[in-house]
Amino acid sequence: MNARNRKTLKDIFKKPAMSSIQWKDIEAFLLSIGAEISEGDGSRIRIRLNDVRAVFHRPHPKKETDKGAVVSMKRFLENAGIKP
């Protein structure tokens, strides 16, 4: 995991939740820790990490992830055993 991925992990776990994390950074972080990402319908993506599965929507038209999605990503990572 490089420095950018470590920063993304810290940003996901910040309180209060940030709304300025770019989705591409979250995807890059997930891939760096071994997550499997597959495309769904429309803007949906399926993520599998440590036998935990989740479905997220890529943000559009903005590139930044909203606070609700960041909180959901944090919960997903905690369930998969990932913490900063």
Short description:
The protein contains three helices and three strands, in the order ααβββα.
Kindly state the percentage of residues in helix. 40-55%
Globally, the shape reads globular
Overall average pLDDT: 95
Number of self-contained structural domains: 1
User: Would you report the number of β strands?
Assistant: 3
Spatial sequence of strands, sheet with the most strands? 1-2-3
CATH architectural label:
2-Layer Sandwich
The CA-CA distance between the termini, in Å, is 12 Å
Quaternary state of this entry equals single chain
The fraction of residues assigned to DSSP E strands is 15-25%
**Helix-strand sequence:** HHEEEH
Rounded Rg: 12 Å
What structural class do you assign from the helix and strand content?
A: alpha+beta
Number of DSSP helices? 3
- What would the CATH topology be? Double Stranded RNA Binding Domain
Low-confidence stretches: none
Largest sheet: 3 strands, antiparallel
Please explain how this structure is put together.
This protein is an alpha+beta fold. The chain has one domain: Double Stranded RNA Binding Domain, CATH 3.30.160.90. It has 3 helices and 3 strands. The chain has helices at residues 3-13, 23-32, 67-79, and strands at 36-39, 44-49, 52-57. Helix 1 crosses helix 2.
